Amino acid sequence: MTANLLNALLVTLAFGVTYGLPAVLAAAWLWRRRPPSAAARREAGLLAVILALAYGVRLLHPLRHAYLGQSDAYTHLLFIKDILADGTIRHPAYPAGYHWIVALPVRLFRLDPYLAARYGGAFFGTMLCLGLYGLLRAGGRAFPALLGAFLAASCPVFGILIKTGVGAFANQVGLALTPVILLAYSRFVARARGGGAVLTALLAGLAACVPLMLLRLGVVMLAERALALAAAAGGGGRAAWRRTGRLALLLLPAALIVALQFAPAGSAWWRVTGEALTGERLRAAATPQPGPVQAEPARTAPCPAAAVARDYLSVKRAGLGSRWMTLAACGLLALFAAGAVQGARRRMPLWRVIGVFGCVTGLQTLTGVLEFSRYQRAGWSFMIAAVCACAWLGFEVYRRIRPAGLRRGLVAAGAAACVTLTLLHPPGHLNAVSSAEDALVRLTRALAHREAVRAGVRVPVACDAPLPAAVAAALEPGLPAVLVVRSTSGAATRGFWELPDAVTVRGAPLEIVNVRQEADLRAAFRPGRQLVVFLDRARRIAAPALGSVAALDPAQAERYARWQYGHYAVNGVIRDFLDALPEDAWRRRAVPLGARATVVVAVPRAGSGAAPPGGTPRRPRSAPPPP
Length: 627
Prior knowledge:
The structure is a single chain. By secondary structure, the protein is mostly helical. Helices cover 61% and strands 6% of the residues. The strands form 2 sheets. The protein has a 5-stranded mixed sheet, sandwiched between helices. The chain has a two-stranded parallel sheet with strand order 1-2. α2 packs parallel to α7 (142-154), α11 packs antiparallel against α12 (237-250) and α11 (211-231) packs across α17. It is globular. The two termini are 33 Å apart.
């Protein structure tokens, strides 16, 4: 735990100096011009405590677990390594802005990219809390701003939103930018000085990182402009139309960035991306293309553009799978609608923007309309809107409680309860890739360090768990080791990402064989190599354990659970090869790693050819039935 804490502090320092220090210097310059009052200093102190709490809560899971928790995190880690290696990523149709953001502190501080992926998500989660504070503080009151930041920092009710700060994936940047963009947009429609320039820069940054979130905010802006034009129909309509035309111009740089990102991809990658978003096969006679595809055969759609548009506009569900959750969401939707109308009538741009944002994201969450079937992320944005609503409602209740001592006591008790519950049940991800995901990550990184030391290769500083003593004792010190493990992404992805490839120490000469079929395993048998074979126990993921995915789309959750469970069948191929190794040529030793994994170390005996077993390999054995 001490080594993990040191690594987390190192990553915190790297991200803080790279991105936090400029903000601190700017704040110090402003304070020098206008010294803060005693109330402002107290508010700043409370905000600092809340942000520290937000960061600490999001670090609890990474400090205890080595795995990143979802396949997207491992994919993005590989993309970060791609940026560090040659400045581009292996997927020509995927925006690389997020990976450049993470790669900069990694490069400046010579970090291990895995450490940035493991601990860096807490930084973006904390920035989300800071952005919510700024958005709500623009309303003129300190209490709802601090309350909103606290709710997003450690309130268990918003656990799904807090969980986005665990691990590393591109949506973190989009979520952190969302409240800041809403604030800049409200200042733009209020004709505040400099609002347009700031909004243009923020939208361009979002386009470079998460274009689909830009699409969602574009719908929000379109709806807000429609409401503003309707409210100005009786007078001042010309100014509203000019503001709308200027907004269209401000969106052009973001649109240009998206066009430049996708232009080199080509039609094949466009088709693959469309299939990944909609779940439909976009050509009747499609030929296999490189890159990620869906795990199961999809429906055929002869017109790709029409299929994508139809999927985006279609209603996919009615409710959230729970009567009480649906009623709560409908209540919030009505509240946001009322706030948007009142904001339009009273010419309050901030509340009009937040109200429209809540209405759009609430409609998307409840019905799935204006979202793609395989990319439904509006729930996170709706929770950002819900934080704003709860913070302001909490303030209205707070100021009506008398006496003042009672309301302060209630606030302290509520905050203590939230923090206690969150610490007892910290946010984290399900280890869905493998039943022994922690063990696989630690073994891979320990072997990578061993190979780097053996070969005299200098690698980034990392203080991970050492190689298990029993595994180290079974290895031959002078021989290079080959890690053999079943594919963690499945044959459908055609090797686009694999967990061991992502988490291995960058620059370490560790050879990894990800087994999908017999031919993959034969590649591991080379002269002068010893094998470290990782075998994890088959485990079927219960669909309800997938959380919100199971509630919103049970069929998709069940498909994912079956797909992941099918990967374990490859372990049968590996066991067949191990059982067929001749005793006179190989020395084998099995080492248990916890309750769900076994490592088999196979070392060639002196003078043997270390060849794979002969004969016709058996077909993969099916995974055992789930318990």
